[in-house]
């Protein structure tokens, strides 16, 4: 899904993200393909929503802050929570697994979508 989103630059604002896709426009992709989701703009609310042992699929964006050499970037990756662990398939080191979402927030939390 993330790859398809990144390749859909014509549908979104040109000039943001990989191949022109804008990570803040993910909801437009999800809406277009009728994918059910819940959007979170607070890390605490996202953690609350995923605190039980169910399986979740999360599209997660974080942005670096101004102290990061003046470069402003948004990082988008896919996280799956299963068996109490969060697994990222395209984060900073390609594949990471942690027991908490906090470890994925290397910069500032931006948005997350739990995809149903």
Q: Supply the number of helical segments.
A: 3
Shape: globular
Taken as a percent bin, the fraction of beta residues is 35-45%
Could you give the order of strands across the largest sheet?
1-6-2-3-4-5
Task: Note the topology.
Layout (H helix, E strand, L loop, with lengths): L1 H5 L19 H7 L4 E4 L2 H7 L6 E8 L10 E9 L2 E7 L2 E5 L9 E8 L1
Antiparallel strand pairs: 1-6, 2-3, 2-6, 3-4, 4-5
Question: What does this 3D model show about the protein?
Answer:
There is one protein chain. The chain has three helices and six strands, in the order ααβαβββββ. Mean pLDDT is 76; it is low at 10-20. The longest helix has 7 residues, at 26-32. It is of the alpha+beta class and 116 residues long. β3 and β4 form a beta hairpin. A six-stranded antiparallel β-sheet has the order 1-6-2-3-4-5, with helices on one face. The protein has one domain (2-115). It has helices spanning 2-6, 26-32, 43-49, and strands at residues 37-40, 56-63, 74-82, 85-91, 94-98, 108-115.
């Amino acid at each position: 899904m993330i790859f398809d989103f990144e390749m859909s630059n014509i549908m979104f604002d040109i000039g943001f993200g990989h191949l022109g896709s804008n990570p803040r426009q993910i909801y437009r992709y999800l809406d277009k393909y009728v994918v059910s989701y819940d959007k979170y703009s607070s890390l605490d609310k996202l953690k609350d929503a995923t605190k039980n042992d169910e399986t979740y699929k999360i599209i997660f964006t974080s942005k670096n802050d101004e102290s990061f050499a003046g470069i402003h970037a948004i990082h988008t990756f896919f996280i799956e929570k299963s068996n109490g662990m969060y697994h990222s398939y395209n984060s900073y080191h390609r594949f990471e697994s942690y027991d908490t979402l906090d470890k994925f927030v290397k910069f500032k939390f931006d948005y997350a979508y739990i995809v149903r």
